[in-house]
Amino acid sequence: MRFPSIMGLVAICLGLASLVFRAHSVDPFRGFASGQQVREAKGFRIYYAPWQNLEQIDAQAIATSRCNHLDLAAYSLTDWKVAEAIVQIAQSGRPVRIYRDREQYEEELRRGNKVLEMLRRPNISIKVKQSAVLMHQKAWSDGCLLREGSANFSPSGEKQQDNTLAITDDPQSVKQFEQVFQAMWSRADNIVVQ
Which class would CATH give 6-192? Predict the structure, then answer.
């Protein structure tokens, strides 16, 4: 089975979001300060850093999840608030799977990334892609929502850099990510961290 590239998925998401905005006269900056619209959104909602605080939007969407799991593909994972939200999911008894890029993960280990220590909890499994080919996704799904975008799960990526974050509850998009994530998670040569 062939899976489209992540950039292809992002392009599709952005294109569909543009159509939704135009068709429904949606203001993409609605919910600018708080991200309160995330759980209410139907279809696609896109946010832009640094004009919007993507850290707050990510953390709130994860922390308020009522679905049965969390699958997160993270090139970089150094944001404390996002990590705290992930821990909340795990503490509620729901399984969390985190898939990482090897080079970035090893760099974070060398720097003593405290987020990695925070995530050493029951119900959190972490695998790292063995290949030197980047695992460059910045996405998560709880089975109900899909988060995509260019923003890394880092304070600078979510609050300072010019980045995007798109959230959808479109069942087909959620299902497609879940299939792609499962294919990455199932690679025979993955490094099992926990």
Answer: alpha beta
pTM > 0.90: no
Domain coordinates in residue numbering, the chain: 6-192
| H or E stretch covering 7 | helix 6-24
Taking the C-alpha atoms of residue 45 and residue 154, their distance in angstroms, rounded to an integer, is 21
Contact 82, 153 (CB under 8 A): yes
What is the Cα–Cα distance from 20 to 51, expressed in whole angstroms?
21
Select from 100, 73, 96, 81 the least CA-distant residue to 193.
Answer: 100
- Asked if 152 contacts 158 with a C-beta cutoff of 8 angstroms, the reply is yes
Rounded Cα distance, 127 and 187, in Å: 10
Over the chain (194 residues), the average pLDDT of each successive run of 10 is: 52 50 44 45 84 96 94 97 97 97 96 94 97 96 96 97 95 96 98 97
For residue 136, give both structure tokens: 């460059």
CB 150 within 8 A of CB 119: no
